[in-house]
Amino acid sequence: MTAVEPLPGEPAAVADFGGERALVVADVHCGIETALRYERGVELASNADSRRERLLSLLDRSRADRLVVLGDLGHRIGDPRGDEREELETLVDAVTARVPLTLAKGNHDGGVAAAFGDRVEVTPGDGARFGDVGVLHGHTWPSEAVLSAETVCVGHEHPAVKLTDSVGGSRVEQAWLRGSLDSAAFAEGLGVDVSELEWNDPELVVFPAFNDRSGGTWVNVEGQGFLAPFLPEALVDGEAYLLDGTRLGDYRRV
Known about the structure:
nine-stranded mixed beta sheet; Metallo-depent_PP-like; Calcineurin-like_PHP; Pesterase_MJ0037-like; hydrolase activity
């Protein structure tokens, strides 16, 4: 298989870590319903059980040796508590009873890393490399080690596309964003000379959010700003794909 292969119909992929098979997801945002209630006054029943069971089902389906979360395993930026803490405890226990869990630390994960660091492998904010695959959340510039990989996986953006039909109706669907990267943009962002980078012309894979209640960036709508500091400038030729594998082409022209 290719280094990173999406699972049809799911915001998840299987990655080859060089001798280890990983299930990779991004932006689980455990406890998001509590935040929506207090921050926006939106009352939603918790999907904690279904999120956990869905992850466990994907572990079975993918026959993975490891689960990798590309940041924002939790939703609260500070220490997790209440319903969020309970959801995280149950999820981490259920996953680690089967396989190791790696968290590419995201901007929402400071408290999660402190609370669960004894059971979860937590990478630095600028990511880590496993075999030919680099992983990070995407809220910071990736390390040079991550950029030396052949494939770079990020979350953070929650990419989606707004699709409009011939009579003006529209819908928003989660999407994958994939494309090649510009070495010069990263050299500038990291403050190094481009010749100093170990560059293997990596493909960027931007993961849709695992939590479909967490909103997203409409990548094909003008004026929608990207969140990652290297996007969209460092993305040379990004293409969008729906979760079912439908190729939409250049994300800017969808």
